[in-house]
Amino acid sequence: MGLERLAALNALSDAEFAVYSQRGEDGILEWLLQRVPVGSRRFIEFGVESYCEANTRFLLLNRNWKGLVIDGSPTNVEAIRKDPMFYSYGLTAICRFITRENINSLFRDAGFEGEIGVLSIDIDGNDYWVWEAIDCVNPAIVVCEYNAVFGDAYPVTIPYNKDFQRTAAHFSNLYYGASIGALIGLARKKGYVFLGTTSHANDAFFIRQDLAHHVVDRIERKVAAPSLVRESRGPDGNLTFLSGAARLQCIAGLPVLRLDNDEIVKLGDLASPYSEAWLSEM
User: Fold this and answer.
1) Distance CA 103, CA 98 (A)
2) Does the predicted TM-score (pTM) go above 0.70?
Protein backbone atom coordinates (compact mmCIF):
# COMPACT_ATOMS: atom_id res chain seq x y z
CA MET A 1 0.00 0.00 0.00
CA GLY A 2 3.06 2.28 0.05
CA LEU A 3 2.68 3.07 3.74
CA GLU A 4 6.25 2.02 4.45
CA ARG A 5 7.34 5.21 2.66
CA LEU A 6 5.31 7.35 5.07
CA ALA A 7 7.92 7.52 7.80
CA ALA A 8 6.20 10.52 9.38
CA LEU A 9 2.71 12.00 9.16
CA ASN A 10 1.31 15.48 9.50
CA ALA A 11 -1.78 13.89 11.04
CA LEU A 12 -2.79 10.27 11.56
CA SER A 13 -5.42 10.56 8.84
CA ASP A 14 -2.65 10.92 6.24
CA ALA A 15 -2.30 7.12 6.38
CA GLU A 16 -5.94 6.44 5.54
CA PHE A 17 -7.16 3.91 3.03
CA ALA A 18 -10.27 1.74 3.13
CA VAL A 19 -10.58 -1.84 1.94
CA TYR A 20 -13.13 -3.16 4.42
CA SER A 21 -13.33 -0.30 6.92
CA GLN A 22 -16.04 2.33 6.80
CA ARG A 23 -13.57 5.17 6.35
CA GLY A 24 -9.76 5.12 6.43
CA GLU A 25 -9.24 2.86 9.44
CA ASP A 26 -7.61 0.06 7.42
CA GLY A 27 -4.75 2.30 6.38
CA ILE A 28 -4.26 3.83 9.81
CA LEU A 29 -4.09 0.45 11.52
CA GLU A 30 -1.73 -0.89 8.86
CA TRP A 31 0.58 2.13 9.26
CA LEU A 32 0.63 1.67 13.03
CA LEU A 33 1.20 -2.08 12.90
CA GLN A 34 4.12 -1.65 10.50
CA ARG A 35 5.83 0.35 13.26
CA VAL A 36 4.55 -0.98 16.58
CA PRO A 37 5.76 -4.40 17.81
CA VAL A 38 2.46 -5.66 19.21
CA GLY A 39 2.75 -8.70 21.44
CA SER A 40 -0.32 -10.52 20.16
CA ARG A 41 -1.80 -11.20 16.73
CA ARG A 42 -5.35 -11.16 18.08
CA PHE A 43 -8.11 -8.58 17.83
CA ILE A 44 -11.57 -7.92 19.27
CA GLU A 45 -14.21 -5.82 17.55
CA PHE A 46 -17.80 -5.30 18.62
CA GLY A 47 -20.68 -3.55 16.91
CA VAL A 48 -19.67 -5.17 13.59
CA GLU A 49 -23.11 -5.75 12.02
CA SER A 50 -22.51 -8.36 9.25
CA TYR A 51 -18.72 -7.75 9.33
CA CYS A 52 -18.64 -6.85 5.63
CA GLU A 53 -17.56 -3.35 6.68
CA ALA A 54 -15.33 -3.41 9.75
CA ASN A 55 -12.08 -2.12 11.21
CA THR A 56 -10.50 -5.55 11.72
CA ARG A 57 -11.51 -7.54 8.64
CA PHE A 58 -8.37 -6.36 6.82
CA LEU A 59 -6.28 -7.66 9.75
CA LEU A 60 -8.03 -11.01 9.48
CA LEU A 61 -7.64 -11.40 5.72
CA ASN A 62 -4.38 -9.54 5.09
CA ARG A 63 -2.39 -10.42 8.23
CA ASN A 64 -4.13 -13.70 9.15
CA TRP A 65 -4.83 -12.54 12.69
CA LYS A 66 -7.17 -14.39 15.04
CA GLY A 67 -10.20 -12.44 16.19
CA LEU A 68 -13.41 -12.15 18.16
CA VAL A 69 -16.37 -10.19 16.82
CA ILE A 70 -19.63 -9.45 18.63
CA ASP A 71 -22.95 -8.07 17.42
CA GLY A 72 -26.39 -7.92 18.98
CA SER A 73 -28.30 -9.05 15.89
CA PRO A 74 -28.84 -12.80 15.30
CA THR A 75 -29.26 -12.07 11.59
CA ASN A 76 -25.90 -10.31 11.42
CA VAL A 77 -24.04 -13.04 13.29
CA GLU A 78 -25.64 -15.72 11.13
CA ALA A 79 -24.41 -13.84 8.04
CA ILE A 80 -20.88 -13.75 9.48
CA ARG A 81 -20.91 -17.48 10.13
CA LYS A 82 -22.11 -18.19 6.57
CA ASP A 83 -19.35 -16.08 5.02
CA PRO A 84 -16.55 -18.31 3.58
CA MET A 85 -13.96 -16.28 5.45
CA PHE A 86 -15.46 -17.57 8.73
CA TYR A 87 -14.15 -21.10 8.23
CA SER A 88 -11.03 -19.97 6.37
CA TYR A 89 -9.66 -17.86 9.23
CA GLY A 90 -9.49 -17.90 13.01
CA LEU A 91 -12.63 -15.92 13.69
CA THR A 92 -15.09 -16.29 16.59
CA ALA A 93 -18.50 -14.59 16.27
CA ILE A 94 -20.86 -14.05 19.20
CA CYS A 95 -24.40 -12.69 19.25
CA ARG A 96 -24.97 -10.62 22.39
CA PHE A 97 -26.19 -7.15 23.29
CA ILE A 98 -23.19 -5.57 25.01
CA THR A 99 -23.29 -3.86 28.39
CA ARG A 100 -20.60 -2.83 30.83
CA GLU A 101 -21.84 -5.62 33.09
CA ASN A 102 -21.27 -8.46 30.60
CA ILE A 103 -18.36 -7.31 28.44
CA ASN A 104 -15.54 -9.00 30.37
CA SER A 105 -17.37 -12.31 30.72
CA LEU A 106 -18.05 -12.30 26.96
CA PHE A 107 -14.32 -11.96 26.29
CA ARG A 108 -13.32 -14.60 28.84
CA ASP A 109 -15.93 -17.11 27.72
CA ALA A 110 -14.62 -16.77 24.15
CA GLY A 111 -11.05 -17.40 25.28
CA PHE A 112 -9.82 -13.83 24.88
CA GLU A 113 -7.89 -12.56 27.89
CA GLY A 114 -4.56 -10.81 28.39
CA GLU A 115 -2.59 -9.33 25.51
CA ILE A 116 -4.36 -8.48 22.25
CA GLY A 117 -3.20 -6.38 19.34
CA VAL A 118 -6.29 -4.30 18.55
CA LEU A 119 -9.56 -3.53 20.32
CA SER A 120 -12.22 -1.77 18.22
CA ILE A 121 -15.33 -0.31 19.90
CA ASP A 122 -18.37 0.92 17.97
CA ILE A 123 -21.76 0.32 19.56
CA ASP A 124 -23.40 3.69 18.90
CA GLY A 125 -24.20 4.26 22.54
CA ASN A 126 -22.41 3.19 25.70
CA ASP A 127 -18.96 3.16 24.09
CA TYR A 128 -17.38 5.17 26.92
CA TRP A 129 -18.91 3.06 29.69
CA VAL A 130 -18.05 -0.26 28.07
CA TRP A 131 -14.43 0.71 27.42
CA GLU A 132 -14.15 1.94 31.00
CA ALA A 133 -15.36 -1.47 32.24
CA ILE A 134 -12.98 -3.60 30.16
CA ASP A 135 -10.21 -5.01 32.32
CA CYS A 136 -9.57 -8.59 31.19
CA VAL A 137 -7.68 -7.73 28.00
CA ASN A 138 -4.68 -5.47 27.45
CA PRO A 139 -4.86 -4.07 23.89
CA ALA A 140 -1.84 -2.51 22.21
CA ILE A 141 -4.09 -0.27 20.09
CA VAL A 142 -7.65 0.89 20.79
CA VAL A 143 -10.01 2.29 18.17
CA CYS A 144 -13.16 3.87 19.57
CA GLU A 145 -16.00 5.71 17.90
CA TYR A 146 -16.63 9.27 19.12
CA ASN A 147 -19.60 11.55 18.57
CA ALA A 148 -18.29 14.73 16.98
CA VAL A 149 -21.74 16.34 17.25
CA PHE A 150 -21.06 16.67 20.99
CA GLY A 151 -18.14 19.00 20.18
CA ASP A 152 -14.55 19.10 21.34
CA ALA A 153 -14.68 21.54 24.25
CA TYR A 154 -16.19 19.31 26.95
CA PRO A 155 -15.64 15.72 28.14
CA VAL A 156 -19.24 14.47 27.90
CA THR A 157 -20.98 11.16 27.38
CA ILE A 158 -24.52 9.89 27.42
CA PRO A 159 -25.50 8.79 30.95
CA TYR A 160 -25.23 5.02 31.29
CA ASN A 161 -28.31 3.02 30.38
CA LYS A 162 -27.66 -0.68 29.81
CA ASP A 163 -30.59 -0.86 27.37
CA PHE A 164 -29.54 2.19 25.31
CA GLN A 165 -30.33 2.04 21.61
CA ARG A 166 -29.42 4.97 19.38
CA THR A 167 -32.57 5.24 17.28
CA ALA A 168 -34.89 4.70 20.24
CA ALA A 169 -33.06 7.34 22.30
CA HIS A 170 -33.86 10.08 19.76
CA PHE A 171 -35.31 9.97 16.27
CA SER A 172 -32.46 12.08 14.87
CA ASN A 173 -29.85 9.33 15.42
CA LEU A 174 -27.51 12.08 16.64
CA TYR A 175 -27.65 11.30 20.37
CA TYR A 176 -25.19 8.56 21.33
CA GLY A 177 -21.69 7.88 22.56
CA ALA A 178 -19.13 10.30 23.93
CA SER A 179 -17.21 13.38 22.88
CA ILE A 180 -13.58 13.17 21.86
CA GLY A 181 -12.58 14.88 25.11
CA ALA A 182 -14.33 12.19 27.14
CA LEU A 183 -12.47 9.40 25.33
CA ILE A 184 -9.09 11.13 25.58
CA GLY A 185 -9.60 11.51 29.33
CA LEU A 186 -10.62 7.87 29.73
CA ALA A 187 -7.68 6.72 27.60
CA ARG A 188 -5.28 8.62 29.83
CA LYS A 189 -6.70 6.96 32.95
CA LYS A 190 -6.34 3.53 31.33
CA GLY A 191 -2.75 4.17 30.23
CA TYR A 192 -3.21 5.11 26.57
CA VAL A 193 -2.00 7.98 24.41
CA PHE A 194 -4.23 9.73 21.87
CA LEU A 195 -2.84 9.64 18.31
CA GLY A 196 -5.59 11.21 16.21
CA THR A 197 -8.78 10.40 14.32
CA THR A 198 -10.02 9.60 10.87
CA SER A 199 -10.61 12.60 8.65
CA HIS A 200 -14.32 11.71 8.63
CA ALA A 201 -14.43 12.17 12.41
CA ASN A 202 -15.89 8.81 13.33
CA ASP A 203 -13.07 6.87 15.02
CA ALA A 204 -10.31 7.88 17.42
CA PHE A 205 -7.04 5.94 17.83
CA PHE A 206 -5.09 5.31 21.02
CA ILE A 207 -1.87 3.42 21.73
CA ARG A 208 -0.75 1.87 25.01
CA GLN A 209 1.74 4.05 26.80
CA ASP A 210 4.58 1.52 26.81
CA LEU A 211 4.39 1.32 23.00
CA ALA A 212 3.78 5.00 22.28
CA HIS A 213 7.44 5.85 21.67
CA HIS A 214 7.36 3.88 18.43
CA VAL A 215 4.97 6.33 16.75
CA VAL A 216 4.21 9.49 18.75
CA ASP A 217 7.16 11.42 17.35
CA ARG A 218 6.20 10.37 13.83
CA ILE A 219 2.83 12.20 14.02
CA GLU A 220 3.19 15.97 14.02
CA ARG A 221 -0.40 16.95 14.85
CA LYS A 222 -2.38 14.66 17.15
CA VAL A 223 -5.77 16.16 16.48
CA ALA A 224 -9.44 15.21 16.33
CA ALA A 225 -11.42 16.10 13.22
CA PRO A 226 -14.88 17.70 13.25
CA SER A 227 -17.62 15.91 11.37
CA LEU A 228 -19.19 16.96 8.08
CA VAL A 229 -21.55 13.97 8.02
CA ARG A 230 -25.23 14.85 7.51
CA GLU A 231 -26.94 11.71 8.76
CA SER A 232 -29.69 13.31 10.87
CA ARG A 233 -33.22 11.93 10.63
CA GLY A 234 -36.63 13.45 11.18
CA PRO A 235 -39.48 11.95 13.23
CA ASP A 236 -40.61 10.16 10.06
CA GLY A 237 -37.24 8.43 9.74
CA ASN A 238 -36.21 10.32 6.61
CA LEU A 239 -32.86 12.10 6.30
CA THR A 240 -32.94 15.80 7.14
CA PHE A 241 -29.29 16.56 6.21
CA LEU A 242 -28.56 18.85 9.15
CA SER A 243 -24.98 20.10 9.24
CA GLY A 244 -22.68 22.05 11.53
CA ALA A 245 -24.05 23.30 14.82
CA ALA A 246 -27.64 22.68 13.67
CA ARG A 247 -27.10 19.01 14.51
CA LEU A 248 -26.40 19.88 18.14
CA GLN A 249 -29.42 22.19 18.29
CA CYS A 250 -31.62 19.26 17.26
CA ILE A 251 -30.70 17.36 20.44
CA ALA A 252 -30.09 20.37 22.70
CA GLY A 253 -32.66 19.26 25.27
CA LEU A 254 -31.10 15.85 25.89
CA PRO A 255 -28.88 15.03 28.90
CA VAL A 256 -25.16 14.30 28.97
CA LEU A 257 -22.80 13.66 31.84
CA ARG A 258 -19.94 16.13 32.18
CA LEU A 259 -17.05 13.99 33.30
CA ASP A 260 -14.99 16.95 34.51
CA ASN A 261 -17.49 17.79 37.27
CA ASP A 262 -19.74 14.69 37.33
CA GLU A 263 -22.80 16.80 36.53
CA ILE A 264 -25.66 15.87 34.22
CA VAL A 265 -26.59 18.81 32.01
CA LYS A 266 -28.55 19.40 28.84
CA LEU A 267 -26.46 19.62 25.69
CA GLY A 268 -27.95 23.02 24.94
CA ASP A 269 -26.69 24.38 28.25
CA LEU A 270 -23.05 23.83 27.30
CA ALA A 271 -21.49 27.14 26.33
CA SER A 272 -19.39 27.03 23.14
CA PRO A 273 -19.09 23.24 22.75
CA TYR A 274 -17.07 23.67 19.54
CA SER A 275 -13.59 25.15 19.40
CA GLU A 276 -12.83 27.87 16.87
CA ALA A 277 -10.75 25.38 14.89
CA TRP A 278 -13.72 23.03 14.57
CA LEU A 279 -16.17 25.80 13.74
CA SER A 280 -13.92 26.98 10.92
CA GLU A 281 -13.97 23.49 9.36
CA MET A 282 -17.67 22.80 9.88
Assistant:
1) 6
2) yes
